[in-house]
Amino acid sequence: MLADLDPEKCAPCISKRKEIIGNDNIDLVVIARKAIESWFLADTEAMKSWTKQGRFFEEYPEQMPSMPWGRLKEIGLQTIGRGPGSSKIAFADRFIKHHNFSVVRAAQHPNCPSAGYFVEKLKLLA
After folding, report:
1. Which long-range contacts (CB under 8 A, 24 or more apart) does 90-96 make?
2. CB atoms within 10 A of CB 101
3. Using only C-alpha atoms, what is the Rg of the chain?
């Protein structure tokens, strides 16, 4: 199970978020400290595809004043004239299918430790 911490909606800390999720039929629960959308910002190749820009690099995808979803909106408006839309799930689906998002590439970003942590946890299950 992969989830955001998302303190605005349900949980002030990782322990509380895991408690809310429960553990029925779940082998592993990984909670991203920052919004999972920061992983999209960390996958430079997928971002280049989405923004249609030959160059893209988000220096600190997990450390910004606004939430990563807001940063995606800002980048989309600046580069392609529209944001990611209103549905995070629909955007994630399109980003994976049409822009080949890879959590492995996001994990290789030098400033996205939560993606690296997730990949390492998945390796333990293999």
Report:
1. 92/36, 92/40, 95/40, 95/46, 95/50
2. 22
3. 15
Q: 0.90 exceeded by the pTM?
A: no
Spatial contact of 61 and 36, defined as CB atoms under 8 Å apart: no
Q: How far apart are CA 38 and CA 75, in angstroms?
A: 13
Share of the chain residues as helix, strand and coil, in percent rounded to the nearest 5: 50, 5, 45
Specify the pLDDT at position 125: 76
Mean pLDDT of 32-37: 69
Q: Tell me: the pLDDT tens digits for 66-77? A: 789 999 999 999
| Chain-centroid distance, C-alpha 11 | 18
